[in-house]
């Protein structure tokens, strides 16, 4: 795949986004800038295998669309919502690779998600399809033992430019400004009647307040 040399990677940023907030957006922006990504695809999950019930997918899609409106470097990608069955990351990456056979792909994850990687479906095949970029959170330490320690020793690169020279296969840990905003806590506070202002874009807040989608149910 030498034709992929020096191509700017596509970032793939998945999650429930239930709801999307400034923590998601700031991480995506910093990774786009620091890694010189061509763009970042926001990929809302339909049925995340390791999470319980989540808010209606079409509403979450609407919230992400509102959050990234006017940001051409961000793309709303509904492919997981159109697919039957659990939203396995390996299937999403395979779909991207089919669509972009030569371009570098970067799966963007948090350090907490990376530490749980061995529980993911076919996790050991992910690097066959994409690079993995781990957004480093203060207080978390990259593992140096076990499966993940072995993975980092074999595949880690300290140079983001290496992500541009091959389509997949490397792991890069990138520090980001960590905004400690939790979607779980946001849902709880909104249900309790608290205002999510300054934690998310105003147009996302407006939809949440108008639809009362996170209001406490009787």
Task: Tell me what you see in this structure.
This protein has 218 residues and is of the alpha/beta class. It has a single domain (2-180), classed as Rossmann fold (3-Layer(aba) Sandwich), CATH 3.40.50. Helices cover 32% and strands 15% of the residues. The model has no long low-confidence stretch (mean pLDDT 92).
Count of structural domains: 1
Helix content estimate: 25-40%
What is the arithmetic mean of pLDDT?
92
Structural class: alpha/beta
Write down the Rg.
Answer: 17 Å
With strands numbered from the N-terminus, the spatial order across the biggest sheet is: 3-2-1-4-5-6
CATH architecture field:
3-Layer(aba) Sandwich
CATH superfamily: HUPs
Topology as a string of helices (H) and strands (E): EHEHEHEHEHEHH
- The count of DSSP E runs of length 2 or more, i.e. the number of strands, is 6
Produce a short descriptive summary.
By secondary structure, the chain is of the alpha/beta class. The chain has seven helices and six strands.
